């Protein structure tokens, strides 16, 4: 007998009953247990979604991540595990099964598609791989790292811009393996240099480093995570709270502002947990007051006052395999969404950053150089004592130059100077603004550094700076700063890293 794929369209009100029935009929879970499994393990994720959404439920679905775990682990057990999953696709408008067979509905389906989630035949770890657009959330005033993720829904090709998420199954993937899988799923779908990986591949990469068996998994240390990322092609970098102290969370915020998903290690004995920080809440000008006023003393007693965007006390977006996707919390209290007091008191002890392998100038050094350079060369007699607002981040030079080329605010002479300077693949950028201009998404000054230059002597990382009447660049042959007079007006800030500000 031919095994056919079942497809059912439903709204949110009827989704719960349908899924409970499928857990019972397809996964063989007793009715009372199926209802409890839904309420405990699936409903918290679904409650985060808007009420007006529609869903297409498909069974059987072959999920690449679960099948990898099934064939490499679950199939070898005495107890018989199911190998097929349920997939639920999400739409912003009402859908019907026959819409997928009529050409006139194709564009509507594509434009209203908001992602999918997979239900695994594992109890209680039912919530599997997902890719859900922030637009599907009830509370979606966030900006995040996101990439196009493709799939075929009822035979139609669809694509959603999202960040990958999954719960752990506690045996083949714990929190650390899940973060590695999500990072590689993100970068593998976004950049040709990287490729998605499956749990068995993660275990294989780490097998030469481990002295014990890897399944059932006992979790990973920060060094294990960094080692795996290095093997997958990154120039990974580990930062610890103990080493960087007051700069630690600022470094994390700078990387997030750069559009880089960061592995965050949480601790509160005996708890050790790994999550991803992938974005932040959208900008609110009232938050500027939460950034501390900092000072640097310059020659002749002049004081340079400034504030850092990376020290604003705001909510960041976490991808946590214990919770629904896109959790919002402060960096000072990253587990505030947990009800357990021990979890609630976790703090960030380490971060692991998956940097492009040719980025040699890291965030702390870039920030230090920018502040010292500004104090020495740009601010004396020019700031009138008002604090400069710094926004520091990494960007690809190609994307940044594209943004500058189409900025109608920037004066044409400065624009051409920036566009004509050779740059490496990635650059560090500092936008200099003030509280009035940043509310309008505008800046009044700019510093760009070569992210491949780790030698900080003689201003060597400097590619250019532009502030008020002066444009400066480092002359490689003479080893001195070259100055050009300009008439720099305010210009648009760069927003492509997180697709917003």
Describe what you observe in this structure:
- With 501 residues, this protein is α+β, with helices and mostly antiparallel strands.
- It has 4 domains: 162 residues, no CATH class; 59 residues, no CATH class; 125 residues, no CATH class; 130 residues, no CATH class.
- The protein is built from 14 helices and 24 strands.
- The chain has an 8-stranded mixed sheet with strand order 12-13-17-18-20-21-22-23. A 7-stranded antiparallel sheet has the order 1-2-3-4-5-8-7. Strands 6, 9, 10, 11, 14, 15 and 16 form a 7-stranded antiparallel sheet that branches.
- Helix 1 runs antiparallel to helix 2.
- The protein is globular and about 80 Å long.
**Structurally, how many domains make up the residues?**
4
Fraction of residues in H or I helices: 25-40%
The overall pLDDT average reads 92
Number of distinct beta strands: 24
Q: Decide which structural class fits the backbone.
A: alpha+beta
Quick one: biggest sheet? 8 strands, mixed
Topology:
Layout: E1 6-11, H1 12-25, H2 31-47, E2 54-61, H3 64-72, E3 85-91, H4 106-112, E4 113-119, E5 127-132, E6 142-144, E7 147-153, E8 156-165, H5 175-190, H6 199-207, H7 222-231, E9 237-240, H8 241-244, H9 248-257, E10 262-268, E11 271-281, E12 294-297, E13 303-308, E14 315-319, E15 327-330, H10 341-344, E16 347-353, H11 363-377, E17 388-396, H12 397-405, H13 412-420, E18 426-433, H14 435-439, E19 442-443, E20 445-450, E21 462-467, E22 470-475, E23 480-485, E24 491-492
Parallel strand pairs: 13-17
Antiparallel strand pairs: 1-2, 2-3, 3-4, 4-5, 5-8, 6-11, 7-8, 9-16, 10-11, 10-16, 11-14, 12-13, 14-15, 17-18, 18-20, 19-24, 20-21, 21-22, 22-23
Helix pairs in contact: 1-2
């Amino acid at each position: 007998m031919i095994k056919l794929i079942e497809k059912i369209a439903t709204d949110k009100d009827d989704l719960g009953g349908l899924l409970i029935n499928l857990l019972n009929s397809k996964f063989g879970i007793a009715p009372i247990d199926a209802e409890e499994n839904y309420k405990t393990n699936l409903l918290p994720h679904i409650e985060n979604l808007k009420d007006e959404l529609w869903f297409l439920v498909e069974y059987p679905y072959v999920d690449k991540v679960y099948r990898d775990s099934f064939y490499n682990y679950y199939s070898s057990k005495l107890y018989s595990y199911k190998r097929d999953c349920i997939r639920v696709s999400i739409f912003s408008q009402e859908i019907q099964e026959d819409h997928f067979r009529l050409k006139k509905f194709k564009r509507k389906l594509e434009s209203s598609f908001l992602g999918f989630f997979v239900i695994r035949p594992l109890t209680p770890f039912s919530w599997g791989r997902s890719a859900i657009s922030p637009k599907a959330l009830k509370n979606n005033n966030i900006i995040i790292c996101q990439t196009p993720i493709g799939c075929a829904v009822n035979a139609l090709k669809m694509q959603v811009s999202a960040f990958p998420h999954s719960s752990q199954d506690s045996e083949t993937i714990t929190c650390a393996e899940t973060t590695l899988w999500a990072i590689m799923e993100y970068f593998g779908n976004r950049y040709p240099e990287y490729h998605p990986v499956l749990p068995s591949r993660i275990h294989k990469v780490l097998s030469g480093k481990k002295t014990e068996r890897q399944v059932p998994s006992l979790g990973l240390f920060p060094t294990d995570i960094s080692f795996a990322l290095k093997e997958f092609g990154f120039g990974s970098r580990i930062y610890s709270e103990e080493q960087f102290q007051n700069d630690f969370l600022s470094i994390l915020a700078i990387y997030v502002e750069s559009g880089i998903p960061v592995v965050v290690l949480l601790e509160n004995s005996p708890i050790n947990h790994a999550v991803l920080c992938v974005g932040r809440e959208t900008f609110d000008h009232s938050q500027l007051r939460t950034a501390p006023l900092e000072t640097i003393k310059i020659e002749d007693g002049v004081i340079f006052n400034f504030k850092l965007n990376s020290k604003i006390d705001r909510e960041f977006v976490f991808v946590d395999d214990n919770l629904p996707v896109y959790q919002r919390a402060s960096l000072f209290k990253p587990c505030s969404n947990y009800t357990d007091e021990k979890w609630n008191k976790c703090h960030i002890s380490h971060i692991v950053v998956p940097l492009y392998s040719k980025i040699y100038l890291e965030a702390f050094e870039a920030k230090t150089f920018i502040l010292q350079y500004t104090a020495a060369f740009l601010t004396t007699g020019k700031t009138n004592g008002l604090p400069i607002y710094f926004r520091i981040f990494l960007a690809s030079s190609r994307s940044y130059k594209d943004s500058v080329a189409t900025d109608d605010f920037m004066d044409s002479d400065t624009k051409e100077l920036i566009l004509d300077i050779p740059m490496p693949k990635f650059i560090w950028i500092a936008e200099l603004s003030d509280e009035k201009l940043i509310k309008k998404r505008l800046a009044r000054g700019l510093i760009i550094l070569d992210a491949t230059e780790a030698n900080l002597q003689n201003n060597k990382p400097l590619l250019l700076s532009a502030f008020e009447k002066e444009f400066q660049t480092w002359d490689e042959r003479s080893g001195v700063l070259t100055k050009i007079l300009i008439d720099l007006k305010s210009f648009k800030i760069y927003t492509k890293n997180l697709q917003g500000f």
